[in-house]
Input
Amino acid sequence: MKDITKQNEDTWDELVQAGVPCSIPELEMTAEQAAKNLNADDIFGDLKGKKVLCLASGGGQQSLGFALLGADVTVADFSAEQLKSDQLIADKFKLPIQIIKMDMRDLTKFEDGEFDIVYQPYSINYIPEITTFLDDIARIVKPGGIYHLMFHNPFIHGSWKHGNWGGEWKQDELWKEKGYPIWQLYKEGQPIETLESTWDFYRKDGKQVQIKSPQEFKHTLSTIFNGLIKNRFEIIKFSEYSADSEGSEPGSWEHYVSVTAPWLSIWAKKK
Output
C-alpha cells in the first residue's frame, strides 16, 4: 500500500495549488490580530524570545502570528506547497522564520527540550499511530513548556457527509431523517470513510473546487489523554468548536456544528 504520508502530502499539495481557504497566507495580519487568534487568554504568556515549533502547520498563518508576537519560530510541514506560504510571509514581513519540510512522525532532528511551545493545529488525524508520536512530542518540549493540540472529536469523526465542511446532507440521507449517521468503529487508528470523500470549497475568486480528501484516522480520547498523562503533561485548557445556529436547516453545516462539536483542542503543560 502506498505510504499514507506520501499520499496525504500529494493531496495537500494539490489542495494548496487549488486555493483551499485554510492554506491562504495571512498577508495583512497584525500583532494585535495574532495575539487575539493565538494567545487571547495569555495562556502562552509573553512570547518574546520563546522557541515555538509550529508542527504540521504550514500555510503562512500560525508561523506568522507567533513571529509577529516576538517568538523564535520554526514551522514544519510535509507539504512543500504549504511551506511556500510560510516563505512568502517570512519574506514580506522580513521575519527569521525557520522553515523545514518534514514528516511530523520523525522529530529526531530536534533536541531534547528544544521548544517552549509546540503548536499543532488540525493535523494529528492524518497519521494512523500517535502513541510514539506523543512520546516524541514530550521529548522536545522543555519542562514548563506547552503543547497545543487540535484534533477531531472521535465520537463523531466520519459523520459528516464530505471529507471537509463542503456540501450538505439531504433529508432522506440522514439516519431515519433525524440525525447524522454515526456508523464507524470507535477504534484507535480506524481509517475514516465519508459518503463523499472530497473536499468541496470555493476559492477566493468564487470558483468551486472539488478534490479527493486526504486520508484521516480516528484517535480516541483515551489514547490522546493517556498519552499526555504518561508523558507528564498537565491539561491547562480544553476547548470545543461549536456554533449556536438554532433554527438552521438540518443537514447543513451550520446545523451540524450546532448539535455537535467536530473539533477539540487541548493545551498541556510539561511537568
